[in-house]
Write the structure tokens for this entry.
Amino acid sequence: MTDLEKNVREKFRYITNTLIKEQLTITTMESCTSGLVASLLTDTEGASAVLKGAFVTYSNEAKIKQNVPADVIGRFGVYSEETAREMALAAKRAYGADIAIGVTGTMGNVDPANNDSTPGEVFFAIAHKEGTESFHISVPVQDSRYEYKLFVAGAIAEEITRVI
């Protein structure tokens, strides 16, 4: 296990245990992380008490089917803070969770299906009781797709920790 993976797993163990203790629920709508955030949340025993469900919406069509407005994707692009916010809000509505994560972006290569694709640019949002916050990160070149996902999951974990 790399130091990055160990660090990210520890963050999510803390998050899941805190959610359990605080009796808060969480959901995700993930694109570029392909469900890794939800998976990391469930690596801690008792996670079924807090993870309401999750969506992996890898395509634009999947996002739209889960109630991300097509006009937001059309106007701002699938890789945008606006789309990430709508993903978080749609997941929050779908599951009635206290906290919802939406994440979209391009990892190591250009997405041929979307002309707004810039490798390493990721947008995520967290919807919670105080409102919805959106974030943009530039991911440095990683050795594998898994390491890209871990890097992004680590950034998301930092922000979740701040709001719980």
Remarks:
- Residues 62 and 96 are 20 Å apart (CA to CA).
